[in-house]
Amino acid sequence: MEKLTKLFWFVCLFVVGVMISIVTLENGLLLSVLSFLLVFLFTKKVEIKNFSVFLFLFSLITRIIAVLLVEIPIQSDYYIMYDAAISAINGDFSFGKSFYFSNWGYQLGHVFYQAFMLKIFNNVLFLKILNCVYSSVIVLFVYLLLKKMVSENSSRVMSLIYSISLYPIYLNMTLSNQQLSLMLILIGIYFLFCKKYKFIHLMIAGLLIGLGNIERPEGIVYLLTIFIYYVFTLKNVKLTLKNTAIVVISSLLITNLASFALVKSGVSEIGLKNTNSYWKFLLGFNYEYNGKNNAEDDQYGDSLEKEKEVLVERITDVKRIPRLFYNKIRIQWLYSDLEFSFPTNNISQFLNKIMQIAMNYIKVINSLVIVLAFIGIFAQTRQKNRITNDSTNSPQHYIDLFFMINLLIYFGVYLLIEVNARYYYNPQIAVIILGGIGLEYVVNWIEKHCRGV
Q: In Å, how far from its chain's centre is CA 289?
């Protein structure tokens, strides 16, 4: 009878366990928890002497396999830039005068980068594999930056979690201009946290941020982050202005040289400039589409005056702004609109189900990392007098503060302009790094309170 009772309890537990597994599998929770658990156990149990090399190779191999297995058609802006790159290698530069590049000249940087690479090896797969390399370097620098703040184990766990984040892996399958840009900027930021604020380090940082900006125009966010960071940490107006000036001038120098070259060569009349400054805001304040890109707003694209008129009309409709901001935060920071990023046409019901599980997994693991980032910020607020009053030219290793500032700037920017799930690619680095601090705090708290149990 005792054996029968035990069997009964076991069957009950098994049945309920299956129910829980199915529910948590479909909503992404099971895979997310398992990811953290497996990565944590792997970090604890497996000794890897040269983890940097392992991390880079693991990330690269994972990404290349994904690119080889899944083919994503070239579409939208990616197709326009790729088509222009093909024209460039064939000696036709007339695309520079087209409506698209006459409005958004800053996209020409990516066009000529692709053209240069296609001259070496004319195959789309080559461009995608290069994106795999760049995104693997990004993973590596996430680890190197985390190592400056938290333990080796926490650095390894969070960098591995980021290395298997599905959406950054997915972006390598497209011809995105985000990977190379972010890699250059992240290396530039790393130079800011060298042992001393030497002129050469600041200049290299500025040049790398400028090069990243040529590829994708997000440099202004990082230059503003650097300035505010120096205001907080250096406590010296002269030193703050001097250090900021070196970085900013170096960045602007390389960007303006590239822009000047495009104008001088006759490819473009505007270089890397943006002559349609209202567009991103016009889309960002579209209440019907929650600030996303849409076909209906195309009717205003050929008239700056009309864009300005519609934008003012939308901004002054203040009663609708809170709801708009709420929806934009969900789309931008919680991947709630992820379905529009994946091609779901002409796939079987089974594959569609797998894709839904994958998308739910992305959303849940992203939410868990955001929770860790919140804990990390909270943990840092408990440390009194963290910001030194030292005004000498010494290193200020407050990388967490740097990325808090960066996160706030990105948050504010995306409240105002167009949002898209893939635009989370850059600010996700700030969330991952702050999440690493949160993970360290949680692990230390558990060890402290469970030691005597």
A: 23
